[in-house]
Every structure is written in structure tokens, then in C-alpha cells.
Amino acid sequence: MRLLLIEDDRMIGRAVSTGLTHAGFAVDWVLDGRAADLSLSVGLYDIAVLDLGLPAKDGMAVLATLRAAGNRMPVLIATARDAVADRIAGLNAGADDYIVKPFDLDELIARVRAVLRRHAAAASSLLVHGSLALDPLRKTVTWRDAPVALSAREFALLEVLMQRPGAVLSRKKLEESIYNWNDDLGSNAVEVHIHRLRRKLGADVIRNVRGVGYCVAAD
Predict the structure, then answer these.
(1) Are 112 and 99 contacting, i.e. CB atoms less than 8 angstroms apart?
(2) What is the mean predicted confidence (pLDDT) over 61-73?
(3) Residue 2 forms beta bridges with which residues?
(4) What are the phi and psi torsion angles at 214 (to 5°)?
(5) Whole-angstrom Cα distance, residue 191 to residue 209?
(6) What pTM, to 2 d.p., does this model score?
(7) Lowest mean pLDDT, pick from 2-11, 51-60, 107-116, 136-145
(8) Nearest residue to 1 via CA among 80, 76, 90
(9) For 130, left (φ over 0), alpha (ψ -120 to 50), or beta?
């Protein structure tokens, strides 16, 4: 899952970015509202963690711009604004959850996961394609009823493909879904993960559409 962290406090940002990365998220971090607008307009994110007291553009204005554009991506507000009126305003503006600083990092991570589960019913049920089954909540994969051990990147790549069965996704699209800006990304990183998935699941499970991308093949 790719996450955009919008936080101007560098100490908090480093701690939260590190914690979310260790929890399995690909995290991009920006420090002001205008950078957030740009990232949200060009990036592919599953969720954003949004501070409100931002330089350049306030977090509430960032949220308003996102929703006005019709983007329903989940947003969790994480801010020092603790008044009930602020919480109500944030939720009414389209935030999916609201947590007040200082917060426990484990609680933030749990809330991020809860918001994602609420937004995607698939997060609490299996993704099934033929004899291949992936459980996003338990992080398990079975192939022909046998468990398959995958790395975090392999699992993330397979999940993206299975969320859109039959759709051919380009290498760039797959890279955007599972890597953040700071990852040391080799030119053939996606191909390496695809090769390893095929070795574990069978050569015909993931189809390569030459010059276009990859898709989960029919059983």
C-alpha cells in the first residue's frame, strides 16, 4: 500500500514515516500544502495522513481541493487541533478519521489500517482468481489450496494485479503502486518480482502482454 504523509514537523514526520514503512507501507512524505496538492494530483496513493497546520496551504484546504476534484481516496487527519469543532469540521469536510497529537504510533498505524478496511470491502475478504486466493487482511496467499510464502514486495505486487483481474497494468503503474520516491529502484525491479512470483505460483499465472504490461491470467 502506498501512503502520502503530509506533515511539516520534521521530527514527527521522520518518526511517522519510519513507523509506517516498518509496518509495510510505501511512504512518500511532503512538508507543505502545495507539495501535497502536487503529489495528490500526480501520484497514486491508497491513503493520506494529513496534518492541518501546514505552511503554503492549510490542511483543510488541501482536503477540500482533493474532494472537489472527486478524489475519494481515504484521508486520516493527524493534527494538534483538538477542539471538538475542529474534529467535526474535518470529518464533515471528507476526512475518514481524525487523531489528535500527541498520538501513539501504533494507534496511528491501526487507524490507517482500519480506514483502509472500511474503504475496501476486499480488505476483509479474499481476492480470488481461479485457484489463486489472496487475503489482504491476513497477508496470506494460497495457490491450489496450498499456502505460498511471498516477500512483502511480491505480496504487494500480486495484490495490485488481483484487485483488477484481467486488467493489463504497465510496469510504471505497478512501480507507482508498491514503491515510494526514496526507494532504490532498479530498472528491472518489477520484472524480478514477477519472475519470482511465477517461480512460486507457476509460469502461466501472471501473463506478460508484450509492450503493455502484466495481468493475472485465467486459471
Answers:
(1) no
(2) 92
(3) 26
(4) -130, 155
(5) 13
(6) 0.64
(7) 136-145
(8) 76
(9) left
